[in-house]
Give the backbone structure.
Amino acid sequence: MSKEAIVLFAHGARDPEWAKPARRVTEELARLCPEAWVTLAFLEFMSPSLEEAVDAAAASGVESLRVVPLFLAQGGHLKRDLPVLLEAARSRHPACRIELVTAVGEDEGVVRAMARCAAGL
């Protein structure tokens, strides 16, 4: 049993192909952090939902859970929808520390990687 969980949180889409890059990130994260319970969750259209992912992690006995938004920026979903979902999750699992980190697109390394990709480097 892992004591830490990392939940990658993506928007979701009706087209299952849309999730392929997020699934690749999830696989790479699991490879980099073999000691952590790693999963991908979605806001809408796809499963598991964030609620389902957090519930599964808590049921597995994790003590600490980090939610990492796979979004480019802190837009409406992250400012309005996600806090409500996290508050509900914290209420359901008071023994589990649930932390939210900044959207990955706001990380300097990610910004540089996107710029390099756009430049063809």
